[in-house]
Design brief:
alpha+beta; Adenine-n6-DNA-methyltransferase TaqI, Chain A, domain 2
Amino acid sequence: MDAAEFLEKFDTFADLPRAAEKLRVLVLHYAAAGRLCRPDESDESIVETFPDLADDVEENAGRPGITFGRIGDWRGGGTPRKSEASYWGGEIPWVSPKDMKSVVIDDAQDRITQQAIDNSSAKLIPEGSLLMVVRGMILARSWPVATTSREVAINQDMKAVTLRHPELLPFVLLVLRAMEPTVLRLVKRSSHGTCKLKTQTLQKLWIPLPPLAEQRRIVAAVERLTALCDRLEAEHAERDARGAALARAATARFAADPTPETLETLFHESFDVSAADLRTSVLSLAAQGHLVPQDSSEGDANVRLAELEDSGGNPNVRRRVPKVAGSDEAAEGKTKALPANWALRSTASLLHLGALTDLKDGNHGANHPKVSEFSGDGLPFITAAQVSNHGGIDYDGAYKVGDAVLKRLRVGFAEPNDVIYTHKGSVGRVAICDRRCVLSPQTTYYRVDNSTLTSDFLHIFLQSPSFTEQVDNVKRQTTRDFVAISKQYSFQLHIPPLAEQRRIVAKADALLALIDRLETQQTAARDLAARTLDAAVAALVR
């Protein structure tokens, strides 16, 4: 297949995701494989053009070529002494892997002087040489190669090759770029993880050398096709920008009218809306009182909390729970942003009032069950690892605590309907408990008074930005992924009237389930597009 036939196939997958990226790889593959231009028998062979290559050119699968090690002069690099100020800040680019971001190198972040060249292992590399990275973590994902458009120096993580015949440079560069997947398989890792390519291994690579005239036709074809890929990428970027603007408008409509109908518009094929962002939006609307309309006949949460206070509150509140949390006063301004019949209270206040009947994590210190004490049956021992990001609890996969150990434990017994919150190790996972279990010090249970606060609404609220932003403020004050119980007492919870909580939960559950379903469809469509692209590329490669 030549370039013209390639272009005929172009439209079959130009609109697919990542098409430009795949096409660039495919173009290089065709170039290196000799499939981009038809051979011309009138072309002078490479040995006829360059007789001095005759002893080094060999045929491989019917194509003439040369090992990489014999194509030119190889040079390594070096680093002048950093302590010698006269070596640095000169006019000579000193190229290191961090500079290898394009296929033509004309400058570098660091520069050295002629004095550095004269007195160190760093030497001048002629203009028109090949540069490549041979050491560094970048080799874990890519193999940068480039040419120089001026004299440069390189560091010891690089190699340079000055070709015996500069006329070969454009084609050889294309071949090396096409060989990246092969070269990356040759990368070795040291005991401390550094990636490295051995010079001897690179020098054994076989470089095809078709007639020089054919090389030039191939390079010209690659330039035309690459320009086509660039234009395609620009068109995709413009289309994506339009889609993003439409998605923002659709997201705003959903925030103003959170219904299944407005939600489904966000999964249009022209949009790229994150399902995770949509879930966060639903949770935020639920926590702020914007998901369902308010109904004055459903009462006032502030009145309900006053009733609890008048009845004496919670007589069993734990002695370490402060009566007034430090952030209660600071939260007064936020109350104005909530519906008038919603309440805003700290966790500590809700514990004293009895809207929360208990909040506790697992056993610490000597009371913590030892690994040797776990058994095959008993109550599940729930750590952060057993609580999933999707709200489930893996009881079956948990260690079990038998009767002998249970008799020693004093706290940390979660009951059905408790809301479990992970506060250490993996902070922020939330689930509702459906059976009795024992918590580790990584997890907290929130136990509710069902006549004031439902577990289902609390489960939603603890996942919402209204709560997670408070958690993040605490986490920023420490280097540990940890939110102590004492900090949780200060967190502010939003309390709607009980009937509204139930309506919020019903609508949020319906919208979140729809997001899950639409995300599954979206993922399937993207997977199909990716497979279609891969199949089209594979068909062209064959």
